[in-house]
Prior knowledge:
- The protein is 41% helix and 13% strand.
- The chain is of the alpha/beta class.
- The protein has 4 domains: 2-124, no CATH class; 131-197, no CATH class; 204-261, no CATH class; 269-486, Uracil-DNA Glycosylase, subunit E (3-Layer(aba) Sandwich).
- It has a 5-stranded mixed β-sheet with strand order 3-4-5-6-7. The protein has a 5-stranded mixed β-sheet with strand order 9-8-12-14-13, with helices on both faces. The protein has a two-stranded parallel ribbon with strand order 1-2.
- Strand 3 (134-136) and strand 4 form a beta hairpin.
- The longest helix has 23 residues, at 108-130.
- It is globular, with a radius of gyration of 27 Å.
- Residues 332-336, 339, 345-346, 348, 350-351, 372, 456 line the site of uracil.
Amino acid sequence: MQPAQLDLARYSVRLDSETDFTGWRDAARRLALNEVRPEDISWHVAPNSNQTDLPVAPAGAQLVVPRDFIERAETAFCHADPGRFGFLYRLLWRLRAEPKLLAIASDVDTRRLEIMEKAVRRDIHKMRAFVRFRKIGDGDGERYVAWFEPEHFVVERNAAFFVRRFTGMRWTILTPHASADWDGERLAIGPGAAKGDAPTQDDIEALWRTYFENIFNPARLKVKAMQKEMPKKYWRNLPEASLIPELIAGADKAAKAMIARMPTPPAPHHAKVQARHWPKHEPAKGVEDDAAGSISELREAAKGCRRCPLWRDATQTVFGEGPDDARVIFVGEQPGDQEDIAGKPFVGPAGKVFDAILDDAGVDRQKVYVTNAVKHFKFEPRGKRRIHSKPNAGEVQACRWWIDREFALIKPELAVALGATAALSLLGKAIPVTKMRGQVIEREDGLRVFITIHPSFILRIHEPADKEAERERFLHDMKQVKWLMAA
Ligand code: URA
């Protein structure tokens, strides 16, 4: 059949499922290469229809579309809008003549694509935050089942995330459109289910409630913002939701009690600030903004950092903390598991050692600025645990952007490199830390960098006498730092 004859034809494309992007892509390619106009096509979901009546692509013909279109179309494809198949084809059609179309923010189709992507990403994020598993069975039969009602078709898109987060559990997530099942080795995507198929009560219920009661921060209560983050429609499937009205009502009194009990408890693992599928072309607001005039503005900009891929799996950016006129900046390696959740540097086990030794040395942590060479937690998931993984030179280099700006704003007299990664970041080259500890290296810009070990090194020593000796050496280093601060 010649393309000229196809112009008048009307094609009915039958996709295998609501999420059959491969089927859509194949059909769209064939139709576009045969010059079939958007208005001549109707799109349907018709499982197992084995369609054979679409025109084949002319031999050797290439469909050229901008590189990021397919990635963006795949995200928008998860939207519940029944008109999305035709809409995406229209966009594809227009892109052939207008390759810069996606950069025209005022264009109605570009805008619609953006809105759809945003809605899908938000739904992905909500699912990650609000899926609650309930235990069924015991021993070998133990598994976890959750019921969730996403607004869009995001189950397939999100399944890999749940596999990574809950690798060690056997679980099933049921939704009206699809189910995802992980048996500890294999992920299977199956048909949708009914709410009644999922259990509603178990011992974990009480645990969630206790957990939520503890993370609820009445001092920061903003009912509207909270409802935006945790919309009411999700409440009915959350065990902790029954506490919300009570917690809101008691907030004022509770706030006073809580202020007395600072610091703020950590945010949950699930409440990831960032959604994995945010495309690279959409940097978070302010991330490329070089105009931050204060540490708090810089901290705000760093929340959306995408300079290296570590933001994808970390909970949040852990920025430096301390006075913005501090005379000394301590630089660690990267946040650990607890820092990642709390959003603050050096609050976990290494931080406790660090605090105690600083205290013994007479250095007031409140008066110094503490930050990390890399600002996102890098880890390997191992079952339910997240095992620290050393950042590589590229990640350290990418994060130099933030460190340099922290130093430029604070203008300290001294930097303390806690370990090899910090030394690499501050000096731009690898330093033999154990050999050079206690020494001060002056950079070309005049900044003095004091070299010492990372406090987690002390934690890793098992032999008590060796541990104590190392602690003493680190204390000695910190006393030197105090002396240098005063000098
Ligand atoms: N280790 C670091 O280097 N930084 C932290 O914030 C915590 C542990």
